[in-house]
Amino acid sequence: MDLLPTAFAVLYQFGDAFAFLVIASAGLAVIFGMMGVINLAHGEFIMCGAYVTVAVARLGVPLPLAILTGALVAGLIGMLIERLIIRHLYHRTLDSIVATWGISLIATQGVLIVLGSTMQGVGTPLGSITVGSLSYSTYRLVLMGMALVLLLGLYLLFYHTRYGVVSRATIQAPHMARALGVDTGRIYSLTFGFGAALAGLAGGLYAPTMTMVPTMGATFIVESFVTVVVGGADIFLGAAPAAAVLAVIRASLTAWQGQLFGQIGLLIAVIIVIRVLPGGLSGWFLRTGR
Amino acid sequence: MTAPEEGLELIAKTPAERRSTLAIWLSRLEGPQTMGRGPLFWAAVVAVVGAAAIYPLFVDGWTVGNAAYFFVWTFMAMGLGVVWGYCGALSFGQTAFFGLAGYGYGVLTINVGAAYGFTILALVLAVALAGLAALIIGYFMFYGRIKGVFIGIVTLSVTLVFSTFMAQTAGPQWRIGSARLNGFNGMSGMPPLTVPWPGGDLLLFADIPLYYVLLTLTVLCYLGLRMLLNAPFGNVLVAIRENPERAEMLGYDIRVYQLLAFGLGGALAGLSGVLYTAWGQYITPSSMGLTAAALPIVWVAVGGRKDITATLLGTLLVLYVFQTLTIYGSQYALVAMGVLLLLTVLLAPEGVVAILMRGIGRLFSRRQER
Description:
heterodimer; A: mainly alpha; two-stranded antiparallel sheet; 12 helices; B: mainly alpha; 15 helices
């Protein structure tokens, strides 16, 4: 009698943490994996997606459509920023990170100036379901499904489309790709925009569950950094298993001591991982397996 | 102090070449890793320090305290200059050490008090604590051999988590001895730095005496770093920045050098943290959060990270601009800082002050040639 609800509660906690880590880090992982650039404005793209989603949803547009709009706007802004700024810094990786931090500062404080310190959100949709004596948010179950769909979608995109092949060729051997007629500049631009759109999607998906403040992006970035560091450069070999492992740590510590200790646990995990597995999980997989 | 001596040092030290340790270190005030040499440069340094020394005679106490506030930050900036500019390890987490030492100073002095010059001991202990924390984190990073980008992410994650942790310590159960941590509102009520003095302790409030103490510390730290950076240690740091593999092939254990530089940077950030806390008798978690952590990067990038003089001057300059803009609202000032950082990275990656200094240097050297 008691076993099933307990098992569900544990699975729910794990799934929730997993979904958060995957959705929050996907955009960062795509940009880092493809371009070697850590986008410190990642949190601000998330914030952008969330704000657009809420603004559009409050106009009466259905939430899924609003979320897609949020992702699209974040993606377009991402492409614009790539054109104007990141493009000039590809040969200086550290400088490109510093530049994205400048963008982050401008975006956070700019939104604070224009839209004020808070914005009315939308409620969490879909109500809740009851298993055993506890009730769970249905929307969070949808998010878990979304995380899996996202991983599958990314896999199909990068391994079964022309864009995927060309973009992987571009990261592996940019000169060769260019010699074969690939417009690598366009690929970089698309990839950065795509990563930004994924960040916007994360913002849109989590917007109904959060308070809308200009600094809301900061809630996501520690988790996404940690996932990317533990995962290493490859999204599928690295980030997805990393999210699974870290989700176990986060879920158990959160259940035991609360949200913050979940975060501290993640941090300690990442510090140990960089000492033991410097290339992250994907580096380790590539060394041992295959 | 002429150039050929550099080469001679590499050859076995014959008795004729042996100089006193002091003379060797003093000769390192000038060298390949720092801009500025010759009597003209040092005359300018003396003039600037002299002007700073008589500055309090011309302005009121509040302005002097405010100028002292600028000096508080220079240590963190110079530490970041060493770690990022000279060693090539981009740390986003200097404010973690800043906050750690600030809270450390608060906890120590609130519990023990300020008698018998304990605040000075508390300063040393808190700085040591920050340095130790940097060494521990640095050990995992550098001995794990993680690369540039990851150092930034890990240090920033540490900073954000530490800041979040301190922000939730609001309840009465969060106390160390008699010091309440007070969560997001921060800790206050610690004594200022106190120097035991015959006929009554000297309390260093944000006023003229503190200004002179901070000015002296800044000058000493600046000169000390110049000597260190022109010493073999500094040369190895630059070699690591330019090409880690080559430095390693030459037989240096680069991990040790990176670790020591990172520890030094952490300790200097800690010194800033203690002085900040003692300056305002106040420290909050937001002084190390995401926005606060970005500011040292702006100072050092705008000044010029590869030269300690440019870093120092740039920091003071940017702080002044920032404070002037803050009058119109801190959001506007922060947007301006973001724009400044972007423009620097895109248009003057070496740093604005560094480029200016190089230009002035060229001007003078041309004049001497004529």
